Amino acid sequence: MVIFKIFVLLLSLSCFCQAQLSPTFYDQTCPNALSTIRSSIRTAISRERRMAGSLIRLHFHDCFVNGCDASIMLVETATMESERDAAPNFQSARGFEVIDQAKSAVENVCPGVVSCADIIAVAARDASEYVGGPRYAVKVGRRDSTAAFRAIADGGDLPSFRASLGQLSDLFLRKGLNTRDLVALSGAHTLGQAQCLTFKERLYDNSSDIDAGFSSTRKRRCPVDGGDTTLAPLDQVTPNSFDNNYYRNLMQKKGLLVTDQVLFGTGASTDSIVSEYSRNPYRFESDYAAAMIKMGDIQTLTGSAGQIRRICSAVN
């Protein structure tokens, strides 16, 4: 009886360990998984540099809606609404086809082994590294959801471009991320572009938190009565390189979105973090990598939960 109890205990501990995320999760089952993903992502970004920022954003928008489970990849069916069509994602979330291509490449090497959720997480790391960001060890072993969560995506779990610092802080806290994580992850806006619709109000409301020259320059491409889908770089100086210039922009009142500029200039605790990152790119990169790893742990499916999708856009 005692031996049986010990066996059950060891078995349960074994199952628990196997269900944990680890950088070495695929070392035995698919040793070429990460290098295959990396090659596919690098090829995509070499074709379109902007894709680096899009892939990082895709990971963020996946993790903040019911966890890092690739639910954002699912397309609408007769019985399921898609997160892709939620307001924060509609005609703005990008990179789906890049993840599909990476999945196809991995399936050719190891069919049915690597999850789409892991591919999204690894792609975000590979994307930032390719354009100058830090290389960090991505923990893998996630499984894919069997449903999408459109209502959650529309319900406030993704930040509005009009969100206040308090609203952002509360949202991140609900996801297990602290203020430093918020500021570090916002640094991903050193890459990518935004539609005029998301920042036009700031240009024309005589706001005191935006540099007049910066505002005047952006107005040329974002007229008051049109151009809502016209794109502008989040970082006007080095829009295609991962660096700490984003934080220098904030200190000069040149943050493009409301959610960027609220991080500096209000007298809040984030002011000192922005200032620190503007002076110390190595601290920024270290904190960014740590925050990305932390974000990748949000509400993951492991063990026997979920599934390994054959294609990322549909449930098996």
From TrEMBL:
<dbReference type="GO" id="GO:0006979">
    <property type="term" value="P:response to oxidative stress"/>
</dbReference>
<dbReference type="GO" id="GO:0020037">
    <property type="term" value="F:heme binding"/>
</dbReference>
<keyword id="KW-0479">Metal-binding</keyword>
<dbReference type="GO" id="GO:0005576">
    <property type="term" value="C:extracellular region"/>
</dbReference>
<feature type="disulfide bond">
    <location>
        <begin position="116"/>
        <end position="312"/>
    </location>
</feature>
<dbReference type="GO" id="GO:0042744">
    <property type="term" value="P:hydrogen peroxide catabolic process"/>
</dbReference>
<feature type="active site" description="Proton acceptor">
    <location>
        <position position="61"/>
    </location>
</feature>
<feature type="domain" description="Plant heme peroxidase family profile">
    <location>
        <begin position="20"/>
        <end position="316"/>
    </location>
</feature>
<feature type="binding site">
    <location>
        <position position="65"/>
    </location>
    <ligand>
        <name>Ca(2+) 1</name>
    </ligand>
</feature>
<comment type="similarity">
    <text>Belongs to the peroxidase family. Ascorbate peroxidase subfamily.</text>
</comment>
<dbReference type="InterPro" id="IPR002016">
    <property type="entry name" value="Haem_peroxidase"/>
</dbReference>
<dbReference type="Pfam" id="PF00141">
    <property type="entry name" value="peroxidase"/>
</dbReference>
<dbReference type="InterPro" id="IPR033905">
    <property type="entry name" value="Secretory_peroxidase"/>
</dbReference>
<feature type="binding site">
    <location>
        <position position="243"/>
    </location>
    <ligand>
        <name>Ca(2+) 2</name>
    </ligand>
</feature>
<dbReference type="InterPro" id="IPR019794">
    <property type="entry name" value="Peroxidases_AS"/>
</dbReference>
<feature type="binding site">
    <location>
        <position position="235"/>
    </location>
    <ligand>
        <name>Ca(2+) 2</name>
    </ligand>
</feature>
<dbReference type="InterPro" id="IPR019793">
    <property type="entry name" value="Peroxidases_heam-ligand_BS"/>
</dbReference>
<keyword id="KW-0376">Hydrogen peroxide</keyword>
<keyword id="KW-0575">Peroxidase</keyword>
<keyword id="KW-1015">Disulfide bond</keyword>
<keyword id="KW-0560">Oxidoreductase</keyword>
<feature type="binding site">
    <location>
        <position position="190"/>
    </location>
    <ligand>
        <name>Ca(2+) 2</name>
    </ligand>
</feature>
<feature type="disulfide bond">
    <location>
        <begin position="30"/>
        <end position="110"/>
    </location>
</feature>
<dbReference type="GO" id="GO:0140825">
    <property type="term" value="F:lactoperoxidase activity"/>
</dbReference>
<feature type="site" description="Transition state stabilizer">
    <location>
        <position position="57"/>
    </location>
</feature>
<protein>
    <recommendedName>
        <fullName>Peroxidase</fullName>
        <ecNumber>1.11.1.7</ecNumber>
    </recommendedName>
</protein>
<keyword id="KW-0732">Signal</keyword>
<keyword id="KW-0408">Iron</keyword>
<feature type="binding site">
    <location>
        <position position="69"/>
    </location>
    <ligand>
        <name>Ca(2+) 1</name>
    </ligand>
</feature>
<feature type="binding site">
    <location>
        <position position="159"/>
    </location>
    <ligand>
        <name>substrate</name>
    </ligand>
</feature>
<feature type="disulfide bond">
    <location>
        <begin position="196"/>
        <end position="222"/>
    </location>
</feature>
<feature type="binding site">
    <location>
        <position position="238"/>
    </location>
    <ligand>
        <name>Ca(2+) 2</name>
    </ligand>
</feature>
<feature type="signal peptide">
    <location>
        <begin position="1"/>
        <end position="19"/>
    </location>
</feature>
<feature type="binding site">
    <location>
        <position position="67"/>
    </location>
    <ligand>
        <name>Ca(2+) 1</name>
    </ligand>
</feature>
<feature type="binding site">
    <location>
        <position position="71"/>
    </location>
    <ligand>
        <name>Ca(2+) 1</name>
    </ligand>
</feature>
<comment type="function">
    <text>Removal of H(2)O(2), oxidation of toxic reductants, biosynthesis and degradation of lignin, suberization, auxin catabolism, response to environmental stresses such as wounding, pathogen attack and oxidative stress. These functions might be dependent on each isozyme/isoform in each plant tissue.</text>
</comment>
<dbReference type="InterPro" id="IPR010255">
    <property type="entry name" value="Haem_peroxidase_sf"/>
</dbReference>
<dbReference type="GO" id="GO:0005773">
    <property type="term" value="C:vacuole"/>
</dbReference>
<feature type="binding site">
    <location>
        <position position="83"/>
    </location>
    <ligand>
        <name>Ca(2+) 1</name>
    </ligand>
</feature>
<feature type="disulfide bond">
    <location>
        <begin position="63"/>
        <end position="68"/>
    </location>
</feature>
<feature type="binding site">
    <location>
        <position position="62"/>
    </location>
    <ligand>
        <name>Ca(2+) 1</name>
    </ligand>
</feature>
<keyword id="KW-0349">Heme</keyword>
